[in-house]
Amino acid sequence: MADRTIQGGAGDGQVIRTFPFPVDLSVAGVGMQVGPMGGGRTWHADAPLHRVHRIDFHVVMLFSAGPVRHMIDFAEYEAHAGDVLWIRPGQVHRFAGGDEYRGTVLTMQPGFLPRATVEATGLYRYDLPPLLHPGEPRLAALRAALEQVRREYEDTATLPLSLRTAVLRHCLTAFLLRLGHLAASSAEEAARRSDTTFTLFRDAVEKDFATNHSVSAYADALGYSRRTLVRAVRAATGQTPKGFIDRRVVLEAKRLLAHTDLPIGRVGAAVGFPDAANFSKFFQQHTDLTPAAFRAELR
Q1: SS3 9
Q2: Global pTM value
Q3: Phi/psi at 13 (nearest 5 deg)?
């Protein structure tokens, strides 16, 4: 998953360049390439791989070693052995200058596959995560499918070009169907995890909001990192965890102010503010009214 946001663009005031598929570097000029990652591989002679740039084709990297940090659309991802990184046309990205990329890379020109295959494989599902972590069975199947693509790609002797291209399209389709299913499944699983995380957080807040206003304390109690909790709550509600807690505290304070005659200091203590002045400040920040003014409006 994305670890942090990367600020900035191409640098030095330059426009982010887009590089086309390097047909001249592919075997027999077909609209794809597949081979080992490593030094010397590039999209174009002057492509600034270690600076922000775009490409107008698909790149799939299956890693055999790591970690490798790679920026895609201004978020940085860390890939390890067995992970897959899928960069789609038009996405802004940048290679990590100090990291060694090891594994197999596949590049594919838009239009190489027919429309039906493009739709079935989700080639342009920009909503799907670029970094994938296949389990062992899926990883083995992906490796086998990609190896078959590589063998057909490198075999220029047993078929005429038209048949070789057709075979490549079929093999590539099989690989991409597996990859697309993995990406969609990963997105669904992430959504389920977020839902579960938020549900547990919501229930914990409902139980403890009167005594616990700390996001870190909730995260520790639930066994999540603060970052994971922020993502889950924002995905479910559009709010930060702190905002969610504060809204629940304010709601309870309003209930007590409206439906009881408790002194304002006692109301504050009931929602976790032993100091009445701190409670009044908190309540006014969130409602634009002092507790006394809120109560007076209802009576």
Answers
A1: coil
A2: 0.64
A3: 75, 10
